[in-house]
Each structure stands twice: as structure tokens, then as C-alpha cells.
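Action item from last week, closing it out:
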Amino acid sequence: MEERAEKAAQKGSKTERWCWRLILLVTVALVATMAALTLLKYFKHSNSSRVSGRPGPVVQKYSEALRLSMQFFDIQKSGKLVDNPIPWRGDSGLQDGSEEDLDLSKGLYDAGDLIKFGYPMAFTATVLSWGILEYGDQMKAVKQLDHAHDSLKWITDYLINAHPSPNELYIQVGDPDLDHKCWQRPEVMTEERPLIQINTSFPGTDVAAETAAAMASASLVFRKINSSYSKLLLMHAQQLFAFADTYRGSYSVSIPQVQIYYNSTGYGDELLWAATWLYHATGDLTYFKYATEQNGPAFANWGSPSWFSWDDKHAATQVLLSRISFFGTKDISFAENMDLQKYRETAELFMCGLLPDSPTATSSRTASGLIWVIKWNCLQHAVASAFLAVLYSDYMLTSQTEVLYCDGKFYKPTDLRNFAISQVDYVLGENPMEMSYLVGYGSKYPQYVHHRGSSIPADAHTGCQDGFKWLNSSNPNANVAVGALVGGPFLNETYIDNRNNSMQGEPSTYNSALIVALLSGLVTSSSVPKTFS
């Protein structure tokens, strides 16, 4: 009896051990499966996702729209114009900066008025640089790359001169209050042009960091075509970043009068944005660590996507840092860097919000599907979102990452690209108004753009006050502001084409930079470069 009991116990023990082994094997298999599914959304590869490194067939409508969009930069130029292609524009602002023995004659007027606002101008340069770095081959394929380089350098020449010492940056030329009391062409403007600067006593971390981002990104653009200029830009970028970080404070607080036009809602995003561009420009891990482990927890807003604009760089920084996770570097391990993973996860939350049939799709859109966030200059968010979407799509394609996971559903890179196409097609005329919001494109576009130079005949002799007759004229603008991207429709998708309607009808250089970058990504299909160096 005892012997049978002992054998039975041994048998039971063997059976129990076998069961535990089976459970362990099943558990390991399940864990491995879950891990594989988790990694799928980051690393799944497919030969079907391969794209050529060379630009594919040109999409003619986007090529034409890109050609037109580039012209608005020429329309907005201040200074002594060279090879001027705009017959109704001439030299202007030649004395800007002279009161401080500076040459601030170049740069761009930001919108329909005659002020040079440094904050949005720097943003314009950063986005234009980004578009060139990612899609320069596509721009070259449609003969717009040289034009893009010229437009960018016109801005960065100004920014260099606006930064005469490490802790001093001139951030505005002209007085908006005086300017808005006049309606005149820039070539004959008569009002005073005072300067505004930030310094250690009146800091402006947001605008200084954005200018650093502009300089750093532009240094990458010019690295192979003008190395000395590239090095100069990088030096200014590093000085400005140190200034922005050391003397923290919003320029909207230091200089309250700027709140009316370009109020900053915070500077943390600009610090991360600038540090990320400086990492790309230098390869210095100090900047990467600054944007991730050191300041990411305080400023990155991980898990809370926000809209990309001249004021908010969070989404763009998330996408730009995701680029590192897609293509890797020898010094950074995506799998081991939790902060980098958080950036990419938040970028993917943003992308999932854009896709109209995603479980987490944003409700901030019109009935026809246009991203619509605010009534003032609504197209900025739509075009900015579309640019980030096509960029993320191309990151996925180039890295052969097959899927984007959105709360239970899987999407392909083509879904993001199709979203971007839907936004730009809306802008170009596929909308309830059946009109293009890009001036000069198609047969129907705004005729009463809120723009001084466009509205006044080039041969008119007007002073400050008598020019208002052109603002209030019932006739269409005397000069077509080709390439101007106006503010866009109301939420109900209507548009009032009236020169006094600046909410909908005023174009801006930052809108132009965004649509140039977007169109450059859509004009042909190809891979993006895995590195900017």
C-alpha cells in the first residue's frame, strides 16, 4: 500500500510538473505574441512598403500650386530687391534698423500690413527649411528648389542682422498701431519704423528659441551649398538658444504690446523645438538630452496632442523627434529611451486624431472634412496638420513601417497621405464654395484679399490716409497677390470675399511656408532622407 502510494505521489508529482511546464510554455508564447503585436506598430516591415529614393511622376496640379505658392514670398519681400519677378513691387524698408546702425532692410512683411514681426518670420523660416530638408529632391524635380533657397536666405540674412550680440535680438520693425492707421504701398510708406528688442532685462525665450530653430534648420539647408554661411547660422542658433534658456521669460510678458498681434502662450515648446533642431544640426547629444530627459517631462505635454501653429510647436517637435525613432542613430536606442518613445506615442495620437474614421478622430473639422480649429486664419491648422501627416506617412514608408495603430484599428501610410491630400484639395477648390483659397490657382479665387500692396495700383500716388479709398473700394484688387493663401472659410464653410474681412481674407507668410512644405511632399512620391547631414 505504502509503495503504491509513493508511486502514485511520484506520478502526481510528474504530472504536476508537466502541467506547470505547459503553463509556462503557454505563458511565454502569449507574452511573445503580445510583445510582437506591440512592436508591430513600430517595426513591422514589408517589401510592399518600399518606395524609390528618386521622385516619381509629378502631380501637375500640385506642381502648379507649388509654383504659385512660392511667389508670395517675393510679394512679401522688404529691402533692395534683386531680380524682382513681381512687376508691382519695388524696393522698400531700406532704412529699417538704421537708428541702431543695423541693416534690417531685408526680411518679409508677415501678412497684409507692413510690419516685420520676428516671431512668425522665424517660424516661416523654420518650416520652409524643414520642407526643403525633407522634400528638396521633389522641389528640384519641379524647378522650385532654387526659389526656396532664395526665399529662405532672404529671411535668414535679416535674422542674422537682427542678432547683433549673443543676448540681444531685434524682434520687430514698425509700430502696428501706426501702421494700421495707414493704408499704403510699402514702397512709399511714410510712418515711423521703431524697433523692438529682447535682451537680458526684457527676455523673450519663445521668440529667441524660435529664431534659434530657424537658424539651426537653415544651417542644415545651406551646409552643402554655402558652408561658411551655414556655420554662421549655426553659431547664431547656438548663441540664441543659450540666451533663450538662460534668461527665461515670455516676450509677451516682457513686451505686453505684442500680445495684440502675436501673443505667445508659452515658451517650453520652443525650447524643445530649438533643441531638437540643434541636435539634428550638430549631432551633439546634449541637445537631445535637453529635449528628452531633462525638459521633456516639464514641457513636452506627452499624451496630450495639440495643434501645430506659429505659436505651438509641440506636435511638430513630436514628429521631428519621431524621425530619430524611425531611422535611428548610432548614439540613441529607441527601444531603451522611454522619453523618445513618449514623443512618438504622442505623435501617433496626433496622427490618429487626424484620420476621419479613426476611433479617436478629432471633431475639429467641417462637415466636408477640413480641419477647423479657430475662425481666425483657420487654414493654418488644416495645412499644418496635413504637412505633418504626409511627413509621418513618408517616415513610415521610408523605414518600411507598415502600420499605425489607433485604439483597436490599424492604418497604413497611404491613409495619412490620403488625409493630407483631402486637405490640400479642399484648399485648391474641392469645397462647398467651389473656389480656391490659394490666390491665382484655378478660375475662382479671392479677388478682395486684405493686402495693402495688392489692393493699390502701382502707379497710384497715395499717402497714409488717402490710401484707405483702396481698402474700401468695391473694385477687385488692382494687383493679384499670386500664391497668397488666405485665412479660409468659416465653420459652416462659407467665405466672404471682402477686403475688410481680415479674419478670412488676410494671407500670411507662415501659411505660405506650410503649404509650400505640404505641396512639396505631395508633388511627387519618393522616400525622405534618413538623415539631414
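Closing note: Residues 67 and 144 are 7 Å apart (CA to CA).
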